Amino acid sequence: MAFLQVNVYSNVLQMEVAMNVILPQTTHKKIGTETIGITDDIPVLYLLHGMGGNHSVWERRTSIERYVAEYQMAVVMPSTDLAFYTDTTYDMNYWTFVAEELPEIVHELFPQITKKREKTFAAGLSMGGYGALKLGLAKPENFAAVASLSGAVVLADIKSLLLVRNEAYWQGIFGPLDQLQGSKNDPLYLLEELVKSGKEAPRFFLACGTEDDLYPASQYMAHKLEQNQLDVTFEEGPGKHDWIFWDAWIQRVLEWFNEKNS
Q: Model pTM?
C-alpha cells in the first residue's frame, strides 16, 4: 500500500486543506508480503476523525494501512477541524466540502478510485461517527454503506453537548441550540427525510463500547434505523471512548463492509 500526504486547495472553504490517502500498490518484497495492487475502479473509504483529531490521527493511532491492505481499498482521511461536518454559522462550509467537493477532488487527483456507489463507503469515530452517519442519511445515493464508531449521533440532549464544549462553540456550529432538533443537522430529522424520499438507503453499522457515555446514543439510533426498516447492524463490546476500542473495531468495520459487499 502507498501512503500519501496531500495538501489541496478547497474552493468551498477558500483555504488549503490537508488529507492523507492510502492507495493499493503492487509490491515485490524480499521481506514481507508481496501484493498485487488494484489499479482501476478501486473501492474507497472516506474515514473521518473525531474532535481533537485531524487527517493524521487514524494513521498514527491505528494500523489502518495494514488492515486495509487485505481488502485493496483506498482510504481518504481529510482534516475537518472542529466543525462537526457541518456548514457552520461562521461561514465555514465543512459539510459541503466533505459531502460534495472532497469526492470531486479525490476523483480529479486519483482517477483510479471508483465513482461507483456500490464501492464507496464512509466511517468515522465520535464526531466522525456523526459525520459518517450524516453522509449516509443525507447523501444515500453516494454510499453503499456507512459505519459509526462511538458516534455522537443523537444531538437532542443539549446538556450533554454543554459538558463537552461551551454554548458559544455549539452555536457557532449549529446556530441556536433550541432549533437544533428537527434541523438539517439532526440525524433523526435526516432519517425521517430519507424515509420520506423513497431513495435507496445505504447499509448502516453502529458500534460502541459499553462503558462509553455515548453508548445509549448509538443504541437508540440503531433502534430508530431498524424501526424505519433500514438495513442496520448494531454491535457492542467492552470499551470506553478511546483508541483501544477504535483500533479494534475499525477492523470489524472493514470486515463488515467486505462481507456485506461480496
A: 0.95
